[in-house]
């Protein structure tokens, strides 16, 4: 009788193991293969630009071809020339390094961070010819990723005069370009208005 019980238990264990294995295979195929392929297909058909990295050509137009791209609308670049709008600071690697995306991890009362912010504020105020009190926070603080491609309209506004002067353009034309590349709150309520620096600078280059 004992041997019969053992055999029965082994048979039940085998059945349960095979059932578990079948479920593992089914869900592996469903969630590990079918779902990713379906999501990729929908993205490529419905949102090809976004699905391929939101790439931008030198003329500011969108592309899905990496060989034609000069950057991504989702990743900041370190524009430093006086004729360009500047992004917010970056703590990612040596700056805007996509392989080292990170914040400084310094607290708001950290003396090193406080000193750095004061230095940045003085530098931005001198460059833009404004009072330090007019320098917005995003001009002197890095984002959590260090790759934020956008700045506030306030930071863009204090850069208009410099960019217009360096490019020999009317201030009104540069202000119009900023307005054209300013996005409002997502769904009207999420986030804040923001200006995409890469797309704005490329548009100005294309207009020269």
TrEMBL record:
InterPro entries recorded: KdpC
UniProt keyword annotation of Iron present: no
Chain segments annotated as transmembrane: none
Coarse class of the protein's main subcellular location: membrane
HAMAP family for this protein: KdpC
Family: Belongs to the KdpC family.
Function of the protein: Part of the high-affinity ATP-driven potassium transport (or Kdp) system, which catalyzes the hydrolysis of ATP coupled with the electrogenic transport of potassium into the cytoplasm. This subunit acts as a catalytic chaperone that increases the ATP-binding affinity of the ATP-hydrolyzing subunit KdpB by the formation of a transient KdpB/KdpC/ATP ternary complex.
Protein name: Potassium-transporting ATPase KdpC subunit
UniProt source species: Promicromonospora sukumoe
């Amino acid at each position: 009788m004992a041997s019969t019980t053992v055999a029965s238990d082994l048979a039940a264990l085998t059945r349960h193991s095979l059932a578990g294995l079948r479920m593992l295979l089914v869900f592996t195929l469903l969630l590990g293969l079918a779902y990713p392929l379906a999501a990729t297909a929908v993205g490529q058909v419905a949102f090809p630009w976004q699905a391929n990295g939101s790439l931008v050509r030198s003329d500011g137009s969108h592309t899905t071809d990496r060989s034609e791209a000069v950057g991504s609308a989702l990743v900041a670049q370190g524009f430093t020339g006086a004729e360009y709008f500047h992004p917010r600071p970056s703590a990612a690697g040596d700056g805007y390094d996509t392989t080292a995306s990170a914040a400084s991890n310094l607290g708001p009362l950290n003396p090193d961070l406080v000193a750095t912010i004061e230095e940045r504020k003085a530098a931005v105020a001198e460059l833009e010819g404004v009072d330090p009190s007019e320098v917005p926070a995003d001009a002197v603080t890095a984002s959590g990723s260090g790759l934020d491609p956008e700045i506030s309209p306030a930071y863009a506004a204090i850069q208009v005069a410099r960019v217009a002067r360096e490019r020999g353009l009317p201030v009104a034309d540069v202000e119009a370009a900023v307005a054209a590349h300013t996005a409002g709150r997502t769904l009207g309520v999420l986030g804040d208005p923001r200006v995409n620096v890469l797309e704005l600078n490329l548009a100005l280059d294309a207009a020269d």
